[in-house]
């Protein structure tokens, strides 16, 4: 029996990926240059034991998540992700923030998912544009930072 498709590409390349948000098919918005901040980190507390000078105890506390940062060329106003970010960041809390589910897909050459991460209860906390410079010939980049409650690898 041949190995599963995901195991044929090990280790998988990191340059072909897609990001989706929300549960509606029209909320797909996957043209990103870079995704960072995916994964939990365990906070620890340092405890010094009296009379013991050779080590300290590191005790586990809560799991925390860094901000998920999405970078891409500046999107058009039709981008549903941009519209969601604007409604949250420029809405002045007139409406409650509606967190979204996101998925990050690592893809093979044919566009089939090799790995999938689910990001729960994400909402935008910052939207910025990288500096414009007359001496460079580069794409104008926007960065969207999202806070999220948790993530899990599905595949």
UniProtKB/TrEMBL annotation:
It comes from Roseateles chitinivorans. The lineage of its organism: Bacteria, Pseudomonadati, Pseudomonadota, Betaproteobacteria, Burkholderiales. Pfam families: Phage_T4_gp19. PANTHER family: CONSERVED HYPOTHETICAL PHAGE TAIL PROTEIN. GO terms for molecular function: structural molecule activity. This is Phage tail protein. It comes from the Bacteria.
